[in-house]
Amino acid sequence: MKRNLRKVLSAVTALTLTAAALPLSSCGSSSSGGKSGKKFEGQTLVVCSWGGAIQDAQRKTIFEPFMEKTGCIIEEATEPDPAKIKSMVESGNMEIDVWDVDTDFVPRGIAQDLFEKLDFDGANIQTKGMNEAYVTDYSVPCETSTLCISWNSDDYSQDNHPTTWADFFDTETYPGKRTLYTNPMSMFESILLADGVAPEDMYPLDVDRAFNFLDKHKGDILKFWESGAESVELVAGGECALGGVWGGRAITAKADGQKIDYEPNQAILASDSFVIGKGSQNQELANAFIAYATSPEVVANYATEYPGNAPCTTEAYQYMSDDAVKALASNPDTSSSQLFIDVDWWYENYDKVYERFQEWKIS
After folding, report:
1. Residues 152-155: contacts with CB within 8 Å, 24+ apart?
2. Domain map of the chain by residue range?
3. Quick one: which of 75, 84, 148, 316 could link to 262 by a disulfide (CB 3.0–4.6 Å)?
4. 339-340 and 260-277 as β-strands: parallel, antiparallel, unpaired?
5. 145-269+342-361: CATH homologous superfamily?
6. Which pLDDT value is given to residue 22?
7. Which residues are bridge partners to 149 per DSSP?
8. Is 30 a residue whose pLDDT tops 90?
9. 3-state DSSP helix/strand/coil percent for the chain, to nearest 5?
10. CA distance 131 to 111
């Protein structure tokens, strides 16, 4: 399954800078490209991403420059739901070419034959500087997300807030209700860090230990949030003093003046990946898009525009200003204290852990 078998949980990655300046070997001039000579002039590519600030930043730093460079037309979709991909494959009608999916879904999607293999050589897709554990024959990471300790800025401050997950659950020192992600993947890692598990000993996850810890703190947790927007609303709105919140959501909400802040130490790192839906009729164009969108300069531009998620390649940092790198929720200065989730462990264990967690919540 892996294009690279070594699971090197390398330093966090980077995303976008001057898109128009980047040469695009697979998307250059061609005599078959229409009046402009652009190879993909007039062709349509459908890309599905996450909407909101993420997709706004992608549009500005990736989609629009790519269309200008290649002459293609990008149609945007949102909600890259695994069930949606599976339904399109089963119906034989793949309406979306490129999907921005959670990386943990990749091994499941490969097992279900939902993706096309990427043309790494033909499209010149570069993987240097990427987390090798997240590169497969069918996918490359496109950004790194961070699940961070977050707090309501009326309750706590930069000088007085939890800096570890153990602090997060110290209700005597830091009183107030908590909110956590309803998905055990990434949330359970934070629970085990709080209970004293060292990062290097995290996998295989001690699921029983995680549930025992949750039993002790169930009364401190007001709600398990379902969406990033809900997590910010719970913390910034004051219902919860503390929360495990996506760093990107916290950074964006803070910039908008909401009462929320975050701590990068011990952030749990996950990833998004680009995949091509099985049966896509535009695979050459889709591969060219992925090569462009994950190239270091473009990644640097995107990361500068949307600092909530870290770059997918460390090669991007050289194209970013010092201030832009420091603004990231995960960067070379913080990544050593952060933890990448093991998507392979979750691939093997997700369903049974998720079902047990749903039963625990209503017990």
Report:
1. 152/176, 152/235, 152/236, 152/238, 152/240, 152/241, 152/242, 152/259, 152/260, 153/254, 153/259, 153/260, 153/261, 154/238, 154/259, 155/238, 155/241, 155/242
2. 19-144+270-333, 145-269+342-361
3. 148
4. parallel
5. Periplasmic binding protein-like II (3.40.190.10)
6. 42
7. 244, 263
8. no
9. 40, 20, 35
10. 21
Residues 215 and 361 sit within 8 Å (Cβ to Cβ): no
| Confidence label for 225 from pLDDT (cuts 50, 70 and 90) | very high
**Which tokens belong to 17?**
């800078």
Closest by Cα among 144, 244, 126, 133 to 194: 244
SS3 238: coil
What are the structure tokens assigned to 11, written together? 């330093």
User: Residue 134 in contact with residue 317, Cβ under 8 Å?
Assistant: no
Task: Say whether 145-269+342-361 and 19-144+270-333 share the same fold.
Answer: yes
Cα separations in angstroms, 331 against 43, 53, 316, 348: 37, 20, 11, 29
Residues 97 and 46: beta-carbon distance below 8 Å? yes
Q: What is the CATH number of domain 19-144+270-333?
A: 3.40.190.10
Contact between 106 and 138 under an 8 Å Cβ cutoff? The reply is: yes
Pick from 147, 142, 146: nearest CA to 313: 142
Q: Can you give the pLDDT at residue 27?
A: 40
- Mean pLDDT across the stretch 24-47? 68
